[in-house]
Structure formats: C-alpha cells, structure tokens
Amino acid sequence: MISLERQPRWRKAWYAVVERAGVGVPIYIRGDKQIDAEPYPGLGREAAILGLFRANNLPVPRVYGMTENPIGIVMDRVPGTRDVVCAVDDEERRGVAEQYIEVLARMHDLDTAPFVAAGVALPKGPVETALSYLNANIVLYRRTKRGAQPLVEFALKWMQRHVPMHRDTPRVIHGDPGQFLFEAGRLTCIYDFEATHIGDPLADLAALRTRHGTEPLGADPGHLIRYYAALTGKPIDPTALSFHTAAFMLTAVMALAGPLTNPRPQEMQLEYLTWDLMTRRAMLWAMAECLGVAILPKPVTRLSEGRSALVARVLEATINRIDATTEMGAADKASAAALVGWVRGQAAAGAANDAADLDRAAGILGYRPSDWQAADAALERFVADAGPEHDPILFDYFAAQTEERVAEALSIQPRLTQYALPRIVL
Fold it and tell me: What is the CA radius of gyration of the chain?
C-alpha cells in the first residue's frame, strides 16, 4: 500500500494506490452506508453485478476483491468526474449524457438469465415487474419501521391500484441511474449498482428525473428520455413514466422512514433529512401527474427580525469561526450552517404549520388529535381501512403537510425546488 485517503463524503470510501509488479495502481474502496437502508444488503451482490456488466462489455470498474473490516469492494479507480459543470460547453455535456443513455439502453437489452443465476430475482407478470424494486423495499421498510408512517402506507396502497398493467417486459435495470464519470467528452464508466435489479426499464428513465435535481445529467431529462425512445424504437408511456417516478421516490422514503424515526449518531446526517423531504415531495408531485391534479407550493417561510434572531446570527458566526482541519470536518461545518437556516424556518412557522396539520387531520378523522404523533398513528389506522374513494382527501392532506415542511427548510430551498418536478414533454 503506497497511499490511502478517505473520500470526503458521508459514505465511507477510500482512494488508494497499491504497488503491483513495481507499478503504482490507483484503486477505489467502496464501503457500505452504515445504515439499514438497503433492500439488497451486502456489497458482495454489487461486486457480482459489476463482474457481469464487465463481462458484457459495459464500462464499469474492474473488481479486484473485497475487504472484510471494514467491508468494501476493491476496484479500479477510473479517471473522470461526475460533475458536468467540468465539461467545456453544453454540447459536450449533452454528448456525455447521451453516451450514458446509450449504455443504459445496452444494459436494458442484456439477457437476464446470468443475473438470475447470480441471485437477482426475476419478476413474473405486470404487477411484479412494475413493483419489483418497491416490493424488495417493503421487506426493508417493515423490518426497520419504528413508528406510524401514514404517508408511506397510503402510497403503498395507491401504487397497488395504479400499476401499468400493459407493461410486462422485465429487464436488467441500473436501479439508481444517472451515475457516471467522464473525461474529455468521453464517458469513462458507470457506477453504483446496489439497487440494480430486474424490472421495468421505464423505472430507470423515471429515476433520471429525480437524479437531475441533485446531480445535473448534462441534458434535460425530457431530451434524454426522448433520445432513449429514438435509440430503442420504443415509445414512452407518460402515465407509466409518472407511476415509476412516484414508485422510485417511495422506495427512498421507505428506506429512511425507520432510521429517521429515532436516528443513531451515524444516521444524524443533513443529507438524510434532505433526502427524506425532497423524495416525499417528488413522490407526491409524480402521483399528481398520474391523477391529473396540481399541487400548490406554499410560499417560503419569512423570517422575523425580532430579538431572538440575534441568537441565530451568533450561532452562525460561531460555526463560521470553527477551524475545520480535515475535509470531513469542513463538510460537517457546512452541514451545521445549513441546519441553522432550516431550524430558523421551523422556529418561525413550525407551530402554526403543526396546528394547521392537526386541523386538516380533524377533517379526515372527525376529531382533532392531541399532537402530531397521535395524528400519525390515527391516520395510519384510517389509511389501513380506507378505500379508493378516500384517495383525494388523503392525497391533499399529505401534499399540504409536505409543502409546509418544504417552506420551512430555508437553507436547502435550491435542492427542494428541483423536486417540484417539471413535467416531461415526450
């Protein structure tokens, strides 16, 4: 081992250089998430998928093996960046994004048999195909659930009632798409296959819509989806695309629901709180597309400059004076600063929004719960017995609740705005 350096991000990973036959070889060690939020646990599964993709000439890193403590995949460190801002111009950005779509189309055309032989489940029929990733996440959700989750329970029933029954062609799909590196206008690799499974290829295209808000793809998602349709000769069903967008976001909400009920120290991350809110929002906006209804965003919370504002300003100044000596320390410092803005928004509007939420719950339940925990528990019981005739009132309730939470999260507004999903033009 010549060098070893921790990658500065929330997930454990390392850059290393090892000596092999007198030559330094750059490698990357991918660790696990340290959170029970994976429907297909075990990095060994991902390593096997990497091997199958490489055998089929997809541009993925070569795997050398696994580490045990801590567990990780040891693979080639491929040159390039994910940040499309580094491209020389819009034409290069679009070209790289289109190269990714070309690779994705090749992935969707692979024979599923070797993946089934490696232990990847093969769904049968339109329901299993549409819900393959969602069903895998239900097991995780039930295992980690620690409190009432009325929105999740409502969304699960809604998904069962809105399956696109005309689609029944299971294919190997990326699962968490839009993850690639490029250099000098050329895509160098695709990566991250923890969520890879067999399902409806539209699920990958749907997930690109939500990736774009966090990590721009290099081209508008609508353009890339149309490019995929032109490459494959397969028209895109807009309602099915919206369904899969909602289903993919629901899996993220489910994965975080349990851990964020009472998080452990390693789970107390700004990124998890942000994902939880933005995925709830995107799921509801995609469901609204299927229903043909519109969600009205709530105006962003306005801060009062009363006496208490001084405390927040001093806190911000105190955080800014902290001398972060490591990249991880600098990342934690930036997270702390962002959390101050979020907390200020909650302090300004949280009490009023909580009261309004209990009033809306009363309109559904017939009585006003004492607090939000009682409301969640009662609403989950209501959802369990509710039929499709209750969908409109429940949908409106959860949409209003989520938009109020979004309006409070002042410091992450740029990220949340992206998850009021723009409609795709096909």
Answer: 22
Smallest Cα–Cα separation from 335: which of 33, 10, 14? Answer: 10
Element spanning 397, H or E: helix 391-408
Helix, strand, or coil (residue 381) = helix
* Percentages (nearest 5) of helix, strand, coil residues in the chain: 55, 10, 35
Give dist(CA 305, CA 220) in Å, integer: 39
**pTM for this structure?**
0.90
Q: What is the pLDDT of residues 341-355, one digit of tens each?
A: 999 999 999 999 999
pLDDT digits (tens, 9 = 90+) for 288-300: 999 999 999 999 9
Cα 33 from chain centroid (whole Å): 14
- CA atoms in the 13 A half-sphere facing the CB of 297: 16
**What is the rounded distance in angstroms from the CA atom of residue 281 to the CA atom of residue 278?**
5
**Nearest residue to 217 via CA among 257, 187, 245, 258:** 187
Containing 159, the helix (H) or strand (E) segment is helix 150-161
